[in-house]
């Protein structure tokens, strides 16, 4: 487990992120009168936080920049790819097209809110590791948040239900089979009441690694 | 994108007042899913956004005493697809809402926002038109009701005027024996816009004589479109697959598609014919339609 988790140097700096965002959505002009500021109070991963935001600030910017929770990734920036999926009151949403002020009074959950530490991953996180549910990993926080909401809604989904629910979370690496397999395995694990998914963790443990 | 002030309204009257106050520089926002993208691209540049979220009277769905249904505009697609009232009114309508974009968009985007956004490729408009729905529009001088068939004017343009809000969608009771379907042609991915989509309702009597029919298409013209020539060729006739096929040919004259990555205009015209035929044949033989 030593190669994942906190402590790694980020190669994607805050400034680089801001440059990309301002290239994508240049604020060319000031509108309005006083440019309203909004004080938000909401829960993130169980903790109450308060931030003050301008009206146009997106939830993903509050999450990644103000709260420094960089587990949530920004992909397409237009609500299509699912990389930025977070749960708002349990419902999956695209943080890149959600005005931050819409989460006032809500409970937001990000990938950081799932497991208390690396030794106590959720069955879904564990299944993604054991079943090779990711390769490059950029879409994975969004995949896992979307699947977390699926299993809360439908604890034992069929393959078709998994595909339909996960349809909007794009992955360029896995071809999706391993993602579907991971989610079904996690559902089985949770239904049987055991805490971990059977089988080796792909790529992380020596003996028994298959097809990684 | 232009920065803007956000003003949260708590009643319809307050929202109408704010819209009037800010005039051309104001714009209403419901779920924001479509509007925010248009603002980011600089297509709409309001200095003042009037927030509708939280206006309780614009939320929710009610079964009407006459057997019809009222959907208020702030209902999300996700709420609509799971609503017991929608399901008992018409299962095909619930399914139609469940096929809008992805679950994330359905959790954010609203039924009313989708209609006033007036993107002709969206799923609910043709379905609501096939169910003979009407829009209730409220302005400072009161309420007016417009059939959805006359609601859309052009790409991204409706009859909702400046200073007005869409405040309800009303659907009439569905006569017993009516079957309905919604199908869309998605040659690429499940969350893509359709190349063409078809919603249809059909009621046949003894000997398969068509008593009532409505056919509406998405992605086939600048607006969601009723295929009235097709309907006319079918209504009152004894239906056979052959009769439906020849009626479906008329849709080619009714649609006005654009050429884009989902097909050339000529191809889409042909696909409109093919999918209208499929929709009506499935309702006739019961292979797809629901009661």
Question: What coarse outline of chain B follows from CA principal-axis ratios?
Answer: globular
Show the largest interface: A-B, 38 and 32 residues
- Main beta-sheet annotation of chain B: 5 strands, antiparallel
What is the alpha-carbon Rg of chain B in Å?
A: 19 Å
| Class based on secondary structure composition and strand pairing of chain A | alpha+beta
The first-level CATH class name of the largest domain in chain B: Alpha Beta
Q: What's the β-strand tally of chain A?
A: 5
Alpha-carbon distance between the two ends of chain A: 16 Å
Sequence of strands across the biggest β-sheet of chain B: 4-5-10-6-7
Would you list the SSEs of chain B in sequence order as H and E?
A: EHEHEEEHHHHHHEEEEEEEEEHHHH
What is the CATH architecture term of the domain at 40-113 in chain A? Roll
Q: Work out the count of structural domains of chain B.
A: 3
Q: Which fold name corresponds to the CATH topology of the largest domain in chain B?
A: Uridine Diphospho-n-acetylenolpyruvylglucosamine Reductase, domain 3
What string gives the helices and strands of chain A in order? HEEHEEEHHHH
Strand order in space, largest sheet of chain A? 2-1-5-3-4
Whole-number mean pLDDT of chain A: 86
As a percent range, the share of helical residues of chain B equals 25-40%
- Number of helical segments with 4 or more residues of chain A: 6
Oligomer kind: heterodimer
CATH classification class of the domain at 40-113 in chain A: Alpha Beta
């Amino acid at each position: 487990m030593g190669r994942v988790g906190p402590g790694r140097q980020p190669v994607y700096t805050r400034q680089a992120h801001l440059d990309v965002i301002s290239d994508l959505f240049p604020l060319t002009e000031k509108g309005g009168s006083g440019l309203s500021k909004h004080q938000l109070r909401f829960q993130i991963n169980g903790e109450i936080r308060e931030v003050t935001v301008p009206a146009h600030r997106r939830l993903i910017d509050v999450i990644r920049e103000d709260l420094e929770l960089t587990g949530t990734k920004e992909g397409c920036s237009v609500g299509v790819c699912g990389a930025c999926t977070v749960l708002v009151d349990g419902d999956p949403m695209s943080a890149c097209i959600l005005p931050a002020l819409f989460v006032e009074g809500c409970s937001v959950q990000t990938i950081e809110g799932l497991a208390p530490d690396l030794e106590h991953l959720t069955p879904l996180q564990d299944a993604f590791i054991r079943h090779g549910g990711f390769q490059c990993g950029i879409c994975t926080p969004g995949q896992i948040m979307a699947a977390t909401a699926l299993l809360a809604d439908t604890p034992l989904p069929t393959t078709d239900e998994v595909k339909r629910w996960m349809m909007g979370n794009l992955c360029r690496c896995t071809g999706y089979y391993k993602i579907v397999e991971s989610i079904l395995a996690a559902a089985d694990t949770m239904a049987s009441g055991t805490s971990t998914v059977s089988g080796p963790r792909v790529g992380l443990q020596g003996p028994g690694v298959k097809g990684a | 994108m232009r920065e803007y002030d956000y003003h949260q309204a708590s009643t319809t009257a307050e929202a109408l007042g704010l819209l009037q106050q800010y005039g051309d520089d104001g714009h209403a926002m419901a779920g924001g899913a479509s509007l925010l993208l248009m603002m980011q691209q600089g297509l709409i540049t309001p200095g003042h956004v009037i927030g509708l979220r939280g206006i309780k009277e614009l939320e929710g769905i009610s079964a009407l005493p006459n057997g019809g249904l009222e959907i208020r505009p702030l209902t999300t697609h996700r709420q609509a697809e799971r609503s017991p009232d929608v399901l008992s009114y018409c299962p095909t309508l619930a399914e139609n809402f469940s096929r809008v974009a992805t679950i994330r968009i359905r959790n954010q985007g609203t039924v009313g926002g989708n209609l006033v956004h007036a993107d002709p490729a969206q799923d609910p408009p043709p379905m609501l038109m096939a169910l003979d729905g009407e829009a209730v529009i409220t302005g400072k001088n009161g309420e007016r009701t417009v059939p959805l068939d006359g609601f859309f004017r052009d790409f991204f343009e409706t009859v909702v005027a400046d200073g007005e809000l869409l405040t309800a969608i009303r659907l009439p009771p569905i006569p017993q024996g009516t079957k309905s379907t919604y199908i869309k042609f998605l040659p690429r991915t499940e969350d893509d816009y359709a190349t063409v989509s078809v919603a249809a309702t059909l009621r046949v009597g003894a000997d398969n004589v068509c008593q009532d029919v409505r056919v509406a298409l998405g992605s086939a013209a600048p607006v969601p479109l009723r295929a009235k020539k097709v309907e006319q060729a079918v209504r009152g006739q004894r239906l056979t697959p052959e009769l439906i096929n020849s009626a479906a040919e008329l849709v080619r004259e009714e649609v006005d598609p654009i050429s884009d990555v989902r097909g050339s205009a000529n191809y889409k015209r042909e696909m409109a014919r093919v999918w209208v035929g499929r929709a009506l044949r499935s309702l006739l033989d019961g292979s797809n339609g629901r009661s």
